[in-house]
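Homework help board

Subject: predicted structure for assignment chain

Our instructor gave us this sequence and asked us to write out the predicted structure in token form, then describe one feature. I got the tokens but I'm not sure how to describe them. Can anyone check?
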Amino acid sequence: MSSSDAIAAHLDWQPFSHRPDCAKPAWEVAQQAKSDALRVRRGGPEHSCPNEECGHRDHYDRITVRVLCRSCGTVHLISGEEPTTRSTTTASTGYGQPPKRMGGLWLYPGPPLIDVSWEKSGPGAYLCSREKVDRLSEGDIVGVISEGRGKRGATIWSAAIGPDFRPAGYTIWAKNSGDKAFATVAAAAKWVTAELNAAAATETEEDQEQ
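My token output:
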């Protein structure tokens, strides 16, 4: 699952947009949390709940996130009831860490294979790109390197190339390393590069024959 977690960490996130004439685009982000907020008369119908301990009728917990740009005056407000919030790090979410240059590729980290606060295990997968970009798109991703466990729990790595992105976050890879395990991320990255080059050479030969 680490490869799909890495894809989910990087794809399908839509950035907030500034006005076209914004001179200094920068977002100021803040949140407002209210406990036991009273639902106003026109704020929607009361919610019934089979749990007698639940006060989710005319009172509820509300959180609003405000994303504001002082330059162009744009404000995005995101609000919801009964929210779940937590503070974490880029190492845990898998997005926001700088990519690594390895094996002729740029490797973008994903979340840890096991997300536990006391274990600093590092990324459980890397998305591979030929170019360094600020935000990955489907067209940038040419391969993936995923963490696994070998004999006696040793960390091993597998790899795949040629993603075919399907709905609901499902991805099919044209070719994977199969039973071949790599001891390091660098070794897996070299395999990805070699397979990409081989596939490109085959495609060129086929084009010349036509």
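Reply (TA_rk): Your tokens look well-formed. For the description, you could write something like this. Residues 33 and 63 are 4 Å apart (CA to CA). That's the kind of observation they're looking for.
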